[in-house]
Amino acid sequence: MCNINDKERLMPRPIEQHTTAAWANIEKLKEQSKVAIPSEIEVGNAKDWVDTNQK
């Protein structure tokens, strides 16, 4: 029988960090769809990250 702690220990850690995602600092929400609109600074940061990490 497998213990919960064993399962957690064997699970891989997630790669992405949602605290640094462009949508983490929401400037506003679209009224009907509730889509998050990030600030211009966050969009620029996301673009810089993509440009730097292109393959």
How are the SSEs placed, and which strands pair?
Blueprint: H1 4-10, E1 26-29, E2 36-38, H2 40-52
Antiparallel strand pairs: 1-2
Strand content: 5-15%
Cα-to-Cα separation, first versus last residue: 44 Å
Largest beta-sheet details: 2 strands, antiparallel
Q: Compute the number of helices.
A: 2
Q: Report low-confidence residues grouped into runs of 5 or more.
A: none
Radius of gyration equals 17 Å
- Give the fraction of residues assigned to helices: 25-40%
**Silhouette:** flat
Widest sheet: strand ordering:
1-2
Order of SSEs, N→C?
HEEH
What is the overall pLDDT average?
A: 77
Number of strands: 2
SS class: alpha+beta
Overview of the molecule:
Strand 1 (26-29) and strand 2 (36-38) form a beta hairpin. The protein has 55 residues and is α+β, with helices and mostly antiparallel strands. The longest helix has 13 residues, at 40-52. It starts with a helix and ends with a helix. The mean pLDDT is 77. A two-stranded antiparallel ribbon has the order 1-2. The chain has helices spanning 4-10, 40-52, and strands spanning 26-29, 36-38. It holds the Pfam family CDIF630_02480-like. This is DUF3787 domain-containing protein. InterPro entries: CDIF630_02480-like (IPR024209).
Question: Would you summarize the structure shown here?
Answer:
The protein is an alpha+beta fold. The protein is built from 2 helices and 2 strands; from the N terminus they run H-E-E-H.
Name the descriptors.
55 residues, CDIF630_02480-like, alpha+beta, DUF3787 domain-containing protein, two-stranded antiparallel ribbon
